[in-house]
Amino acid sequence: MTLDYISYIRSKVGHDKVILNFAGGILRNDDGKVLMQLRGDKKTWAIPGGAMELGESSLATCKREFLEETGIEVEATRLLNVYTNFEEVYPNGDAVQTIVFLYEVKAISEVSIANFHNEETLKLKFFSQREVLERGSVSAKHRLMLKEYFKDDFAIGH
Question: In a 3-state reduction of DSSP, which class is residue 35?
Fold first, then answer.
């Protein structure tokens, strides 16, 4: 298959709602703040991560997407939770129900975020728990994930 998985699925179903698998990672700095990206598509702050490709594990997806979206190579330290009941519509009209595997990660390469940006990531910044909860441009899904992360208390069944 020469197309990526999402392009392949969308060529069959158009914008209809589909279930897609995603993986992301939470990276915390020495000050206890978490790294977030300003997304290029939605212009919202989010946990770095993205869609799983065919044949790829959730852990491999997390590591690949984190590197693509931040320039930072990471390894997972633990699986935090799996979130299954969020729905969203992307700016292009694609509807999805997401299954998200969320990992805590640590950097294994230099963390240099000042000048990093690309099509998917407009900006990177570390946020405290208070800053995350006060920021209006964080989706309900990511707000819940970060709230659970800062409490270190993960509910089953999201």
Answer: strand
Structure pTM? 0.92
3-state secondary structure of 20: strand
The span from the CA of 72 to the CA of 108, in Å, is: 8
> Given a cut of 80, is residue 90 above it in pLDDT?
yes
Closest CA to 80 of 29, 138, 155: 155
Instruction: Find the angle CA(66)-CA(67)-CA(69) to the nearest 5 degrees.
Output: 65
| Calpha distance 105→73 (Å, rounded) | 10
CA–CA dist 102, 44 (Å, integer): 18
- 10, 51 contact by CB (below 8 A): no
- Rounded-to-integer distance, Cα 125 and Cα 12, Å: 37
Outline where DSSP puts E strands in the chain.
Answer: 18-27, 34-39, 45-46, 49-51, 74-89, 95-107, 121-127
